[in-house]
Amino acid sequence: MDTITLTGVVLLAQPFGEYDKRLVLLTRECGKITVFANGARRPTSSLLAVSNTFVFASFTLVEGRSSYRLLSAEAVAYFTELAACQPGVYYGYYFLELASYYGQEGLEAAATVNLIYTSLRAIVKGKVSLPLLRRIFECRILGINGEFYFPDGITRADGEAGRAIGYCLSAPPTRLYTFTLSREAEKEFTEAVVRNLKRAIDRRFHSEMFLEED
After folding, report:
1. Is the pLDDT score of 214 beyond 60?
2. CA–CA separation, 111 vs 88, rounded Å?
3. pLDDT for the residue numbered 153
4. CA gap 18, 84 in Å, rounded
5. Alpha helices in 54-202 (DSSP H)
6. Which residues partner with 33 through β-bridges?
7. How far is CA 50 from the centre of its chain?
8. Is 110 helix (H, G, I), strand (E, B) or coil?
9. C-alpha closest to that of 131 among 143, 144, 141, 122
10. SS3 at position 207
11. How far apart are CA 164 and CA 157, in angstroms?
12. pLDDT score recorded for residue 56
């Protein structure tokens, strides 16, 4: 039996059958894939803790025709503390939905996996307001996918908002959530991001209804 080990994050975990789970993973190496975790809902299963949303791990899998089967996983982070972050946990779900929207099988997703990890840590730390954290995430993921364009009248060197956009598109992931903006600059930054979102994405996500209004 040939196995493969992929590193990534659980975007979605759903019950499947009586004791199993169906997972959607975003992996650095192979992008978005579907994985079945047999017996993961049994209390004694070694897959119980690693078959949940937000878990980052190295997953050992067997590849099938259209999906994978999970054999084992070595967790890096569980992010169980997100459950106590209200309403931050809903921002986390929104980030996963947005990442899933862009995820494709066979297209490596290291940049997005890193972005999710950094963003969930930022939610837990609570040092950046959730509305600003959301717009930074959106700006960066649009940039990763080549879908962020500077609005007319704004450049990388054009005032506080323009510099913020440039920083979001190019900063190392670990330094992404290290700035704040004046009220006026944040408003301009938000408007630029929202304009790009409306142009690039043709749907609304379920988790958006739980997010705070900017």
Report:
1. no
2. 22
3. 67
4. 29
5. 88-102, 110-125, 130-144, 159-170, 183-200
6. 25
7. 17
8. helix
9. 122
10. helix
11. 9
12. 98
- Range 115-119, long-range pairs (CB < 8 A, 24+ positions): 115/140, 115/141, 115/144, 115/173, 115/176, 116/9, 116/26, 117/9, 117/56, 117/77, 117/173, 118/173, 118/174, 118/176, 118/177, 119/92, 119/95, 119/176, 119/177
Peptide bond preceding 87 in cis form (omega within 30 of 0) = yes
The pLDDT value recorded for residue 151 is 80
Alpha-helical segments (H) within 56-125: 88-102, 110-125
pTM for the model: 0.94
Count of positions (residues) in the chain? 214
In angstroms, rounded to a whole number, what is the distance separating the alpha carbons of residues 109 and 168? 18
Residues 6+ apart with CB under 8 A from 204: none
Quote the crossing angle between the two packed helices 130-144 and 183-200, to the nearest 10°.
40
What value, to the nearest 5°, has the Cα angle with vertex 21 and ends 19 and 26? 165
